[in-house]
């Protein structure tokens, strides 16, 4: 899988105003790719992903919604488990949360 960006900056949002980022990817292999699971580094981030196998040459996306429950410059990670691959893929979202 080749991601357009592995780190996405959501810019600036307000405290307690959820923000969603999108990670776009293309299957550059010769086999279908299946995302078995996606989990976040905290309960404040919820990932959603393409659940069907992604055929060779086709694209998909993973979104992550961050609850923005703390003021500052958060960095959150989404871990992907791909079928047949031992190592998890890490995707990062970052930005600024203001009062």
Automatic annotation (TrEMBL):
Pfam families xref list: DUF1573
InterPro entries tied to this protein: DUF1573, Ig-like_fold
Name of the featured protein: DUF1573 domain-containing protein
Source organism phylogeny: Bacteria, Pseudomonadati, Bacteroidota, Chitinophagia, Chitinophagales
């Amino acid at each position: 899988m080749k991601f357009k960006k592995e780190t996405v900056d959501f810019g600036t949002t307000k405290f307690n105003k959820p923000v969603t980022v999108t990670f776009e990817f293309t299957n550059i292999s010769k086999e279908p790719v299946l995302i078995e699971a996606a989990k976040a580094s905290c309960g404040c981030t919820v990932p959603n992903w393409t659940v069907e196998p992604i055929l060779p040459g086709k694209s998909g996306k993973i979104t992550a919604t961050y609850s923005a429950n703390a003021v500052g410059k958060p960095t959150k990670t989404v871990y992907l488990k791909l079928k047949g691959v031992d190592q998890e893929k890490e995707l990062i979202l970052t930005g600024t949360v203001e009062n």
